[in-house]
Amino acid sequence: MATLKDVAAAAGVSPATASRALSEPGSVATAGRERVLRAAAQLGYRVNPAARALRSGRSGHLGLVLPDLANPFFASVAKGVQARARELGRTVLVADTEEDPALELDLVARLREQVDGVILCSSRMPESQLRSHADAGRVVLVNRELDGVPSVSVDNADGVRQGLEHLRALGHRTVAYAGGPASSWSDQRRREAFAAVEGITVVDLGPGRPVAARGVAAADLALGSAATAVVAYNDLVALGVLDQLRTRGVRVPEEMSVIGFDDIPAAALVHPPLTTVTLPLREVGRRAVELVVATADADPSDPPAVVRELLGVELVVRGSTAPAAAGAARSQA
Amino acid sequence: MATLKDVAAAAGVSPATASRALSEPGSVATAGRERVLRAAAQLGYRVNPAARALRSGRSGHLGLVLPDLANPFFASVAKGVQARARELGRTVLVADTEEDPALELDLVARLREQVDGVILCSSRMPESQLRSHADAGRVVLVNRELDGVPSVSVDNADGVRQGLEHLRALGHRTVAYAGGPASSWSDQRRREAFAAVEGITVVDLGPGRPVAARGVAAADLALGSAATAVVAYNDLVALGVLDQLRTRGVRVPEEMSVIGFDDIPAAALVHPPLTTVTLPLREVGRRAVELVVATADADPSDPPAVVRELLGVELVVRGSTAPAAAGAARSQA
DNA sequence: GCCACTGGTGCATTCGATTTCACCGTTTCA
DNA sequence: TGAAACGGTGAAATCGAATGCACCAGTGGC
């Protein structure tokens, strides 16, 4: 493998000049620069990332920590992160925490040393731990907010609001919520949004894991309540609800309406197709990269610019919601 | 940040001994080793990955290149890779090629220099390009085989065979295949397996992108043929087939049977639940890590041990397959 | 004609851990 | 008794790029 020294020798300049010709072309005379560039191409020179990282202190890597790669939600964010990072010439180190806060803590600590900045996605860590990492700098949160820490989130509250207004317009007055993990910041925001909507009685089906099996259980709970509609923490849970309702012989949307969150690919493929809240997840990933690169490149002595982005969401009405049935009136009696 | 020199000074030994105490504890006397370990803990010492990588030539990173992170198939493999890599103290650099062979070529080239080894998943590259990378060493293929290159694959042929035997036992005699990308090695293996099964007439619906929309189109093609069953390239395509069959008023499985591949989470959640071939994808990822770490750690002067693993698959019979209907007899007339 | 300045350049050092090599004292075997 | 083997250690070289600093020739101002 050719080193910078080889290139410099071939171009008849010193390694220092060769280095400058490659990394800040403006500061080198045209003739020499061209010779260096030509020699580099000739020899197939490629910088040694380790050497550069050692001296400069930056690896060019970004860290991405998320609870579950197999969850389409995080997969989409990861794709956005990937794409933008590649455009910026960065590479991405991914770590899957398996929804385990302890593992997350460990992975973040390890990763911090290997990367220029960390994107921490839907962190399940308690606030105190999270803060200790975030305050050390070079961390951007996704779908979680914390004072003094840059973050990118989706407008959970508005998603809930849109869903509930849709249901209210259809005549629903009692709505069940099949919530997500208790440690989920998004879930907390959604719960608050539920409470803030007027004219709808909320039946809380409690927290649960964000998987289909949780939806199966939630469906029966909902049937045992006065609710005429179910809002699920995410589409996976909603799919579980749909499945169980079919098993119980309850027709959707005639007898029960269902709304999901995330708009995963499968949501449009089930029957009835799921009414859900679509989130700009790729964009979330891209923005997070912008933020983390900006903080990584920033002069550490400057006061850090803390940016908080909130991206809009949109209700996609498909076939799983319809006007409340007679049963709705019954529940109001 | 404390450096090795600081630790050595605190422990009263030379940096060389401190290094050995930390990386090969057996080669240092107990007393000194303990002092070093204590000093390291005391000072909160953490190795500088860049410095280590520079001198030793190994970064501890593994590269994972795959066509699409949002595809549950690859997401599962990625999880397996993640998990095993973490256990082995390695980190994973992920690159998403967006199903683009040109981008893949570029990403692999870039990644190679930053990692100890590359796991190349379902490469879409033509064989010649692939070979040029693979021959340079430290590459493990997943779901693709090439002479002289270590690889981990699933037994595609056996999956097809199991599916077709299931269908034949149910009385099906004409089966349509909604294939995947023409550049997919798996698809080629499956096509061959189709041809090898006796007593079944195959209707080839041609190649296509591995997405639901492709299944929608394939469903109509299947209906226009004599086929009484459809085997899809993957579950996403199968879901598209199911959806379109419902739209066309064709009952599944009574009038048409459908079999998918991959067993993604959504497969069990649709109605009817999808009969599909389940693949040990996590395990594939784990094995790939074993192989790539082994090749990375191997003495480059030794003849490379080329291991080819083939992991078993299993047909999961759910609700989308049933005995061939009267229509089957008609098609044979 | 002297000085200050400037754009370019090279020398030498630096980053932090690893690794080679020489060397020490002790033991073991001939 | 001498030589060889051995576990353990440290000094110093090494990895490859980046960079502070000194220095050069050439320019312009006075």
What would you say about this model in short?
The first copy, chain A, is α/β, with parallel strands linked by helices. Chain A is 45% helix and 17% strand.
Overview of this protein structure:
Two copies of one chain form a homodimer. With 333 residues, chain A is of the alpha/beta class. Chain A contains 13 helices and twelve strands. A six-stranded parallel beta sheet of chain A has the order 2-1-3-4-5-11, sandwiched between helices. In chain A, strands 7-6-8-9-10-12 form a six-stranded mixed beta sheet, sandwiched between helices. In chain A, strand 8, helix 11 and strand 9 form a beta-alpha-beta unit. The radius of gyration of chain A is 25 Å and the shape is elongated. In chain A, 50% of the residues are buried. Chains A and B meet through helix 4, helix 5, strand 2, helix 6 and helix 11 of A and helix 4, helix 5, strand 2, helix 6 and helix 11 of B. The structure holds a DNA duplex (30 and 30 nucleotides).
